Each structure stands twice: as structure tokens, then as C-alpha cells.
């Protein structure tokens, strides 16, 4: 477990694998921490340098008062990668993590050779939707949103498994300010124009039962980047790395090969 000082926040991060391994950076979604990636990591090729961090307000990172700006979330990641002297990584971002991927690629293409945009978009929802969520968290805490979030995160089948409770616990144990702060960052983000200017190998992944970023929305964002690929994972909601880890890891491993990381 490691920590670095990002000025107004202290960021918890973790690096696994050999220092000389191809760097693969994972950015998780709203209401999750770096454990989101645990199901797929053992399924990836050996020898990768795996870098993960907890967004400000999530996991073991500190919790500055809400709201947060998307620029601050991108800057945290930029500083972490500079601190670790990472260049030319494969960046895998899910949902808000995919927004961070897009913003970082626009700002610092030297850091990213290729990216995976999982269950994300150039713009997610609208300000009214996010204002309502922030108000709900202010009044009733994350618990008041948890059932609705589970419906968006997971397919009907997954709702019948005991594992659902663990992911629900991950959500409700995040800090209210962290959740509201990142919701404000998403609300203020529209990357359609900057993402349209990106030119790097990109793989978009969608879940057939995703209630937050449905497949058509993910595909629309992928289509902004010439040459990008799109992969639909069936029997999965917003978190296919949790529901269908074998398929997610296989598609990611193929992309690592295609982009020359392994
Ligand atoms: O809708 C949700 O709760 C899921 C989600 C939207 C943005 C994000 O990062 O997660």
C-alpha cells in the first residue's frame, strides 16, 4: 500500500508486477475502489506492471470536501504516473475512469499508447440527473441510492448471487463526499469535442445490460475516435470486469498483443 501527496488530496495507489513490465493503468468507476479490478488481474498475462489508484474521495485515498472538478481527477492520475515514471501505458478506464482516460489522453498523450474505454462515454447523463443524485446523497447518504445503483451495475442473473452483497458494501462504504464530489465532476464533463481529436488505438467495451452507459452510448463515443474497436459483453451490466471477468480479460489480453504491449 502506497500513498502520494497530490496537494489537496493524498492518493492511495498500488503497483504489482515487475518494474520493467509493460505498464497497464486501471481507473475505476464512481462508488468503487481499486478492488474493482481484482476479478480480472489473475487472468491477465504474467509480467505486466499493473498500476491502480483510488480516486480522491474513494477507497483509502483522502476525502476532500465535495465538489471535485474533472481536471483535478485527471491531474491526480497525471501526477501519479509522472511520480512512477510511467510512459506509453495501456490505460484501462471504466465509467468515470474512462472519462479520466479521455481527458488524460488529450492532455498528456506521452503517457498513454492505447486505451480501453469500458462502459463509459464522452458525456454521461446530464446535470439534472447528477444534481438529483448529489441531493439524495446529501439527504440520505449513499445507502439511499444503493438499490438503484445495483440495478445499473449488474444484470438480473448477478442479482441472484451472494457476491452482490459484497459489491453493494463496497459502494455504501465509500465516503458521501467522495461520491458527491465525483458526481459533480461527471456532471461538468462533456468531452465530445476533445475526444473527437484523439488519435490512438482504442478499444471500447460495453455491457449488454448496462443501465448507466448503454451499448449505443459507448459505441457513439468509440466512433468519435477513428479506427477504434468495439466489443459487447453479454450477460453483464455496468461492471463487466466483475460479471464476466474471463471474457473481459481475454479481450484485454488480445488488445495488449495488438498494441504491442506484450
Ligand atoms: O450510474 C452509476 O451509478 C454508475 C456510474 C456512472 C458513472 C460512473 O463512474 O459510474
TrEMBL record:
Q: What is its EC number?
A: 3.1.1.24
Q: Which InterPro entries match?
A: AB_hydrolase_1 (IPR000073), AB_hydrolase_fold (IPR029058), AB_hydrolase_sf (IPR050266), PcaD/CatD (IPR026968)
Q: Which UniProt keywords apply?
A: Hydrolase
Query: What class does this enzyme belong to in the EC scheme?
Result: hydrolase
Q: Which GO terms describe its biological process?
A: beta-ketoadipate pathway
Asked if the keyword Hydrolase belongs to this entry, the reply reads yes
Q: Name the source's superkingdom.
A: Bacteria
This protein's GO CC annotations: membrane
| GO MF annotation list | 3-oxoadipate enol-lactonase activity
AB hydrolase-1 domain sequence ranges? 24-250
Q: Which Pfam families match?
A: Abhydrolase_6
Q: Which residues cross the membrane?
A: none
In its keyword annotation, does this UniProt entry include Hydrolase?
yes
Can you name this protein? 3-oxoadipate enol-lactonase
> Per the UniProt entry, what species is this protein from, by scientific name?
Sulfitobacter albidus
High-level lineage: Bacteria, Pseudomonadati, Pseudomonadota, Alphaproteobacteria, Rhodobacterales
Amino acid at each position: 500500500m502506497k500513498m502520494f501527496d497530490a496537494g489537496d488530496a493524498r492518493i492511495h495507489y498500488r503497483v504489482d508486477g515487475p518494474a520493467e513490465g509493460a505498464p497497464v493503468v486501471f481507473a475505476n468507476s464512481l462508488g468503487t475502489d481499486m478492488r474493482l479490478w481484482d476479478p480480472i488481474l489473475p487472468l491477465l498475462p504474467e509480467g505486466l506492471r499493473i498500476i491502480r489508484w483510488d480516486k480522491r474521495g474513494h477507497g483509502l485515498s483522502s476525502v476532500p470536501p465535495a465538489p471535485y472538478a474533472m481536471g483535478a481527477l485527471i491531474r491526480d492520475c497525471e501526477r501519479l504516473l509522472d511520480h512512477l515514471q510511467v510512459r506509453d501505458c495501456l490505460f484501462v478506464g471504466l465509467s468515470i475512469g474512462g472519462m479520466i482516460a479521455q481527458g488524460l489522453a488529450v492532455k498528456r498523450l506521452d503517457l498513454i499508447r492505447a486505451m480501453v474505454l469500458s462502459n463509459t462515454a464522452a458525456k454521461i447523463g446530464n446535470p439534472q440527473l447528477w444534481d438529483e443524485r448529489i441531493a439524495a446523497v446529501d439527504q440520505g447518504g449513499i445507502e439511499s441510492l444503493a438499490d438503484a445503483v445495483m440495478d445499473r451495475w449488474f444484470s438480473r442473473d448477478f442479482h441472484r448471487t451472494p457476491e452482490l452483497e459484497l459489491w453493494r458494501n463496497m459502494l455504501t462504504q465509500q465516503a458521501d463526499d467522495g461520491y458527491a464530489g465525483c458526481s459533480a465532476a461527471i456532471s461538468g464533463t462533456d468531452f465530445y469535442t476533445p475526444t473527437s481529436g484523439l488519435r490512438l488505438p482504442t478499444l471500447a467495451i460495453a455491457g449488454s445490460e448496462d443501465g448507466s452507459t448503454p451499448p449505443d452510448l459507448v459505441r457513439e463515443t468509440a466512433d468519435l475516435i477513428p479506427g477504434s474497436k468495439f466489443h459487447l459483453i453479454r450477460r453483464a451490466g455496468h461492471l463487466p470486469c466483475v460479471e464476466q471477468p474471463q471474457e473481459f480479460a481475454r479481450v484485454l489480453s488480445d488488445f495488449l498483443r495488438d498494441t504491442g504491449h506484450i
